[in-house]
Structure prediction request, 160 residues.
Amino acid sequence: MYDFRIEAADRATLYCDLASALEGLVAGEPDAIANMANAAALIWESLPDLNWVGFYRNIGGELVLGPFQGRPACIRIPFGTGVCGVAAATRQVQRIEDVHAFPGHIACDSASNSELVVPIMGADGELIAVLDLDSPKTARFTQEDEAGCVRLAEILATAL
Ligand code: SME
Prediction:
């Protein structure tokens, strides 16, 4: 068992420590599912106020549930539908303060009030997956969270 105990005083240090831990976790491991599973567990253990974190993979132009932490979630999401589907279709980060105000939001867990979804892009410019974080707190995710999770997605892009 790995025991990273990331308890940084500020968000910038927290994400710096998280990025280092993730780089260590995926180093030398080519299996995408193993790397997504450990990444989801690392983020779940390190970031406060989450009720779900995990991956949806791009399988033939449809998002399919990947490794995650939290309650069981919807399995397939079409591109363009919900927060994850819009992130997949546009290849743009979606940082949503109030998911109930987002058109087409998919309420997998009624506890979710805000959401951050980061596309993970391959070197060929293709979407590999999206990293999805959900929180019970409205406006949980800041610009710092977005930048930190974009960095995590960059690390994962080389490991999936
Ligand atoms: N709420 C998401 C669906 C995925 S779950 O939150 C795990 C959405 O609208 O894309």
